[in-house]
Amino acid sequence: MAVPKRKTSPSRRGMRRAHQALGKNAYIEDAESGELRRPHHIDLKTGKYRGKQVLKAEDE
Predict the structure, then answer these.
(1) Do the bridges between strand 28-29 and strand 48-49 make them parallel or antiparallel, or are there none, so unpaired?
(2) Which residues is 21 bridged to in the sheet?
(3) Is residue 29 a contact partner of residue 35, using CB atoms and an 8 Å limit?
(4) What's the rounded Cα separation, in Å, for the pair 38 and 3?
(5) What is d(CA 17, CA 27) in angstroms, rounded to the nearest whole number?
(6) With a threshold of 0.85, does the pTM exceed it?
(7) What is the pLDDT of residues 2-59, one digit of tens each?
């Protein structure tokens, strides 16, 4: 069985995991309202998804 010769330091462990960081969230401009929203998500302001009304519109 393989056994490590030395303990991996927290610094070296962190360097190994450096590429696993989460990326920033992507936002797109909604075609109808012009608001920013996440792709493939409901526009909460209008309540629409892909041109169809799925939720009640938020009252202002």
Answers:
(1) unpaired
(2) none
(3) yes
(4) 46
(5) 26
(6) no
(7) 999 999 999 998 898 888 888 899 999 988 778 888 999 988 888 888 888 998 876 6
If phi > 0 it is left, if psi is from -120 to 50 it is alpha, else beta; for residue 11 that is: alpha
Per-residue tokens: 45:
């302001």
Helical H segments across 1-60, by residue range? 10-16
> Partners of 52 in the beta sheet?
49
Name the one residue in this structure whose structure tokens are 């629409």: 48
Question: φ, ψ for residue 29 (rounded to 5)?
Answer: -85, 125
Q: Which residue, among 15, 8, 42, 40, has the nearest Cα to 26 in the 3D structure?
A: 40
The region that residue 9 occupies, defined by phi over 0 for left and psi between -120 and 50 for alpha, beta otherwise, is beta
